[in-house]
């Protein structure tokens, strides 16, 4: 399996089924709104439904450093309600965060917190008696490891003291716990080895929810570590039983390219595999599903009063700085001194793509950029007179080119990402090339620079997210008339 079912910065997948419909939720880190939810009826074609955490009373990431905020969620359906539990590490001290909804499209409830459940990667499961159990990676000094406690999910109240279950096989960072009930066994599945190249899926089972848990003899049951597979870092899995009684597993992976150590740029993405049960242990079948790369192309003219759910911003909700002027005019306001940057962003979904924006900068300055984080980005900054191509790599920042704005109404800017051409037996050193251009009224490009994409990769910048692109108001107000994104056909 080399094709993700949800591409581009959609890590830590969690899945549930209601009837013939499947839902996946993913981590969103410092971005608001948080926790995107996708819907499918065939497990290979997925449509974005909403973001579960859409309001400040649910999500506060205003002061979240990069790659913090919302960590791994779990999405479940019980008692005719959808339940979502996750961690906002900015509010670590409040414990795990739970919201619920009658419909995954929302609205989702106000958040409740499980006081005392300090840690990350929470899971919800209901036992035979209908009691809800919260399981998480406990960071409390007196209880370190995979902990579980019965709770009231509606209030967040813990009903008994937490206890440890099973802390994995001994690999680094046992995390991402999920509990399942099947044929008289309780199964506890973990991610181990860290979310980088050593990532793996392990599992244990017990006849009792309280253990002791016996590790699978074939652990890890799934990993791509120490292999040449095109998808690496595989792990953080969740199981689902299909409507026909068979089973599947979703997991995260990355698609690194270039020369060693290789570089992944779109973040951790969501993949799927089949699962068989042999001697009451899960066996992974990577070839059962065959998703085709979807066309992620879109054109957004901002005609609707509401932003499409693809749009988000680090640290602040887009509605706090983006407003609809007239139809086809989205007004973005620059932040006040001391406020987080305002970056209307969406995820880059493909290995090769082109995005364009039409801006009116008569009332301010705007930047069209592709970024891995606030210290690693390439962009085109336009005011009423000029366009500058800027490259920021950590503490180094340079203006690579400056040109006057072409004649016409507004300015059109383009970012193109393409794979480099190999010139010998070795792969090119960089994963891709990022080209920045200004477009004339007739569409002719004036290229301001083509830059090595490795510096917008996780291997260089670190962290847990992936590339996004969008528009940042720098001063005054920048008006966005249209944003388009085009997937390049596979070569």
Automatic annotation (TrEMBL):
Keywords: Glycosidase, Hydrolase. One of its GO terms (biological process) is carbohydrate metabolic process. The active site is at residues 12, 175. It holds the Pfam family Glyco_hydro_43. It comes from the Bacteria. Transmembrane segments: none annotated. InterPro entries: ConA-like_dom_sf, Glyco_hydro_43, Glyco_hydro_beta-prop_sf, Glycosyl_Hydrlase_43. PANTHER family: BETA-XYLOSIDASE, BETA-XYLOSIDASE-RELATED. Belongs to the glycosyl hydrolase 43 family. CDD domains: GH43_XynB-like. The record marks 121 as: Important for catalytic activity, responsible for pKa modulation of the active site Glu and correct orientation of both the proton donor and substrate. The keyword Secreted does not apply. This is Glycoside hydrolase 43 family protein. The keyword Aminoacyl-tRNA synthetase does not apply. The lineage of its organism: Bacteria, Bacillati, Actinomycetota, Actinomycetes, Streptosporangiales. One of its GO terms (molecular function) is hydrolase activity, hydrolyzing O-glycosyl compounds.
């Amino acid at each position: 399996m080399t094709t993700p079912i949800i591409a581009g910065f959609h890590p830590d997948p969690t899945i549930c089924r209601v009837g013939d419909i499947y839902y996946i939720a993913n981590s969103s880190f410092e971005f608001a709104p948080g926790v995107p939810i996708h819907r499918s009826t065939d497990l290979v074609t997925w449509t974005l439904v909403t973001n579960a955490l859409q309001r400040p009373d649910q999500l506060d990431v205003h002061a979240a450093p990069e790659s913090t905020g919302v960590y791994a969620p779990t999405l479940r359906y019980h008692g005719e309600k959808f339940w979502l539990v996750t961690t906002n590490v900015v509010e670590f001290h409040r414990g795990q965060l739970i919201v619920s909804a009658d419909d995954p499209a929302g609205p989702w409830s106000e958040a409740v917190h499980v006081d005392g459940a300090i840690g990350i990667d929470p899971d919800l499961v209901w036992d035979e008696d209908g009691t809800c159990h919260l399981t998480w990676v406990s960071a409390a000094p007196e209880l370190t490891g995979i902990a579980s406690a019965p709770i009231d999910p509606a209030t967040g109240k813990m009903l008994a003291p937490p206890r440890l279950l099973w802390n994995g096989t001994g690999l680094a960072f046992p995390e991402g716990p999920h509990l399942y009930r099947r044929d008289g066994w309780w199964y506890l599945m973990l991610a181990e080895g860290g979310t980088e190249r050593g990532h793996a899926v392990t599992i244990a089972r017990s006849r009792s929810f309280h253990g002791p848990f016996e590790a699978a003899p074939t652990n890890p049951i799934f990993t791509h570590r120490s292999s040449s597979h095109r998808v690496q870092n595989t792990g953080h899995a969740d199981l689902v039983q299909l409507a026909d009684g068979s089973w599947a597993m979703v997991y995260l992976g990355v698609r690194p390219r270039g020369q060693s150590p290789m570089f992944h740029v779109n973040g951790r993405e969501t993949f799927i595999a089949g699962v068989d049960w042999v001697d009451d242990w899960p066996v992974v079948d990577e070839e059962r599903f065959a998703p085709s790369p979807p066309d992620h192309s879109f054109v957004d003219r901002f005609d609707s009063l509401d932003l499409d759910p693809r749009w988000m911003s680090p640290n602040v909700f887009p509605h706090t700085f983006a407003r609809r002027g007239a139809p086809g005019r989205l007004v973005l306001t620059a932040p006040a001194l001391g406020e987080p940057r305002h970056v209307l962003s969406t995820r880059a979904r493909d290995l090769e793509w082109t995005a364009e924006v039409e801006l009116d900068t008569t009332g301010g300055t705007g930047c069209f950029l592709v970024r891995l984080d606030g210290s690693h980005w390439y962009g085109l900054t336009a005011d009423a007179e000029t366009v500058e191509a800027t490259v920021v790599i950590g503490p180094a920042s340079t203006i690579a080119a400056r040109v006057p704005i072409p004649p016409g109404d507004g300015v059109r800017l383009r970012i193109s990402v393409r794979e480099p051409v190999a010139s010998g037996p070795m792969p090119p050193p960089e994963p891709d090339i990022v080209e920045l251009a200004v477009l004339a009224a007739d569409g002719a490009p004036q290229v301001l620079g083509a830059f090595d994409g490795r510096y917008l990769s996780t291997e260089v910048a670190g962290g847990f997210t992936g590339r996004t692109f969008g528009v940042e108001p720098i001063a005054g107000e920048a008006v966005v008339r249209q944003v388009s994104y085009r997937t390049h056909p596979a070569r």
